[in-house]
Amino acid sequence: MNLPLGFAAASPDALPLHIVDRAGFTQWRTSQPAATQAWLDAHGFDGAPGSALVIPDAEGRASSAVIGVSDALDPFAYAHAPFALPPRVWRLAGQFDAMPLAAVRLGWGLGCYRFDRYKAAPRKPAQLVIDGDADAVFAELAACVRVRNLVNTPTEHMGPDQLEQVACEIAQVHGARIEVVSGDDLITQNFPSIHAVGRASHRAPRLIAVHWGDEAHRRLVIVGKGVCFDTGGLDIKPADGMRNMKKDMGGAAHAIALAEWIMARKLPVRLTLLVPAVENAIGPDALRPGEVIGTRAGLSVEIDNTDAEGRVILADALAYAGEFDPELILDFATLTGAARVALGPDLPALYSNDDAVAQAWLDAGTRLRDPLWRMPLWRPYWRYLTSTIADIANAGPSKMAGSVTAALYLERFVPAQVPWAHLDVYSWNDADRPGRPAGGEAQALRSAFAMLEARFAG
Q1: Which residues of the chain fall below pLDDT 50?
Q2: Which of 62, 85, 133, 199 has the greatest count of CB atoms below 10 A from its CB?
Q3: Domain topology for 139-457
Q4: Which residues are catalytic?
């Protein structure tokens, strides 16, 4: 069996790993030999979250280890272990119910992650023995790693053409069909907004579409914002705002990873993945403030700000998504800084025109410790997107409710009768934390899959 990094098959050399929390520590401690109790006391170990201690035998060799956790259902509670423990093989001591066991395994895998394409990791992680079936957890881990790797890869090696290549490879593995509309063909095939945003780059803008599943199954469309680098366009970002804009395709990374996960687990859906992939560049043909562009939906859009480009490319993709008459549309986008101001970096902002869809996703997030927060589609704020010369403006002079107005803009391009949810996701860790190294991050991806699995396969 080909196991992910940090996992091993059963081994006679594996040492027991105990997992405790503060509430259960005293009872566990009293069940240990006197020498072990003395060792724990000498090191002040009390089961605090994020702690780890190797316990020696009489000869001073490692005989076991213990880690402290908080929430047993939170995968990140275990993520410190692979690098807090010596890089050898460990096996879980004791019995675990299904959900805590899945959390341990996923947290271990996330804790092992290092982006090593350009720089080798300083050491190998400890390994955890896998007994029994772990395919579902490994598919979950693979999806999270896919997001991280895509977001972490610099634009030089992850432009629109590379995103297309990733989609092609996934389609080939899972027997899916791929279609790509690129360059000036976007105009002739009525994707004018995608073309307008991406036309200034030397890399052709494109719409990537992957189709998979049985035609008898219900249709699901997943859309992801694929701005592979965002200069801000002619409304150029300052240096600190542009520094990490390789991550502006984080929505596409989430959508691609979720689609791949659905195919790998063979959910009974008829799936379409749509990724409008562009680079928002500066050049002689760059989109200019004040221009009016067309959209697939037939609405005219005045460009108030070229740095509000994500919603512009998503408009064409969402309009196209509606043409498939789907049961559900999900979109993921690193859309606004306003969402981060409102909710911080760890809590993606959820918008939906369907209360049942929103609640199912929120409930899955709570259950899996993969949180998100619902925000209102407050339609009186449409006044902030008023244009005097076009049907709608892509932004406006007001700084109020920036995340809400961006979601309202997207909603305008979704057919009213189609359930739709939009996630304004950061896709990034600003600093290292156990299991969350600085860089790309999958957020509310696991809860999205659980919501879809319950809806389509439950």
Answers
A1: none
A2: 85
A3: Aminopeptidase (3.40.630)
A4: 237, 311
